[in-house]
Amino acid sequence: MFCIINNDVQIWPTMITRVKSTLRPALILFLVIAASSCVPSKKLKYFNDIDDIQAPYVSPQKDKAIAPGDRLFIRVLSIDEEANQIFNSVDNITANNTSNIIGYGINQEGNIDFPFVGKVKLSGMTIAEASEKMTGLLKEYVPGSEVVIKYIDNRVTVMGEVNAQGVYSFSEDKINIYKALALGGGLTRWGNRENVVLMRNENGRITHYKLDLSSSEIAGKDQFYVRPNDVVVVEPLKRISASYQNTTFNTVLGALSTIITILIFAGVSPGN
Question: Do the domain assignments include residue 204?
Fold first, then answer.
């Protein structure tokens, strides 16, 4: 019994010496991991410069022009019920299975095929201009009528560090970048607000724009508004905040914390 105690007494200082030799590297590793994993809070915020804004930003974005591939809801309003039934008949329009809204598709030539009127070129026009043109064409058939035109089935693709990647529909001719990201559930914990990429097809050319959502200046840029068929990609942060629940990181920190606690309890310090 006494022999066992004596052996333990001899072994214990040796164990402490060995563990003590690893304490300093462990502390250094702990600090390196913690420092490299922390992200400044400003990288996790929108509008870091909001207190410095002197005047409202004016976006140069113009109304979207109708283009091939767009789908339009076109409705003729008239006091003549028979005319309403003819021009607003479902048989004359292609059904949209996604949103259950019926509409006319713009073909590659930029035309629609409208009852009685025939082919009508609408590409290159705004919604207001197209409504005015259609109203003028229908005067011959339905005097005093009015034509309402809206976009349907506009889509934006949201990818990267968002909570719900996917292709989302919207009825407006344009939506701002924040609303587009909200459709995807917003940014994840690892989303980089200073590095959001907008891909856009402009006259057959794919253009990439880098957006900084932490700056209020984005409101004055053309890319503040997302157009139909745009692709928004949120890049990840280079460093993950220590407050985020990263399993591997927490496991390492937990192990190091346990070792340090044991050594402190045993009366060992890095300088001894």
Answer: yes
